[in-house]
Amino acid sequence: MRNDEHYMRLALEEAKRAEEIGEVPIGAVLVYNDEVIARAHNLRERDQRSIAHAEILAIDEACRKLGTWRLEQTTLYVTLEPCAMCAGAIVLSRIKRVVFGANDPKGGCAGTLMNLLHEPRFNHQVEVVSGVLAEQCGELLSQFFRRLRQQKKRKK
Question: Which HAMAP family match (predicted)?
């Protein structure tokens, strides 16, 4: 059985694919029975779709592959803490476990701003593991936004 760091490295590979095409470098991998059943990265800018987050795309792919919206017994690995939209999709998909790398102080809804994944008023709660390869995940994002700011300064 592979460990959380192994799958987070795969999510980081997805994040790097996003970065290569100018997207915010966030990647996600969905695992069932120790097998990757879906992988995705942000495509919001490319597709100009607000819902094209890595988590949503991976969930959609997994649903198609398994032929069900119930993703029970799966684990979602994502390089950045899920936002409210993605946390909602995770709960509604019945994902068992979420493992994320970097905390999101501006939009994190898996423990930073709030924890929608543990909300007892929902009919499903999700196990959360945070901080797996957090430094690598956070540094990828920091470098991306640093380059973006430098590019904007040069254009002025």
Answer: tRNA_aden_deaminase (MF_00972)
